[in-house]
Design goal:
single chain; mainly alpha; 2 helices
Length: about 110
């Protein structure tokens, strides 16, 4: 290749690179202008929560340090009564298998 051909190719590649850089900068500028001019509004999907009047408490009483103990009894597991067992009612869960029950803890 002659010296003139290499200079011409170099000039063409430099021009193409310059055009690509200018096009990238122009696209970035247009995007920034579009973002700056955009009116930003945030939509709220649900209504804000409003406090409702306190409903009378029907659950167990809360324990307070130094106060009275709750008056409601603790819930018991759902087991059929002896009378129901005699009539054929079954427990909700079968008893644990023997391999799942640990031996008693020995005193040291």
């Amino acid at each position: 290749m002659s010296s003139d051909d290499s200079k011409r190719a170099l000039r063409r590649e430099f021009l193409l690179a310059s055009l690509l850089v200018v096009a990238g900068l122009a696209l970035s500028g247009v995007s920034l202008v579009a973002l700056a001019n955009r009116d930003v509004r945030v939509a709220q999907a649900t209504q804000p929560l409003q406090s409702s009047p306190a409903a009378p408490q029907s659950g167990p009483a809360e324990s307070k340090p130094g106060g009275e103990r709750p008056t409601t009894p603790a819930p018991e597991p759902a087991r059929p009564t002896e009378q129901a067992e005699k009539e054929g009612a079954k427990a909700a869960l079968p008893p644990a298998p023997a391999e799942k029950i640990a031996p008693p803890i020995k005193d040291r």
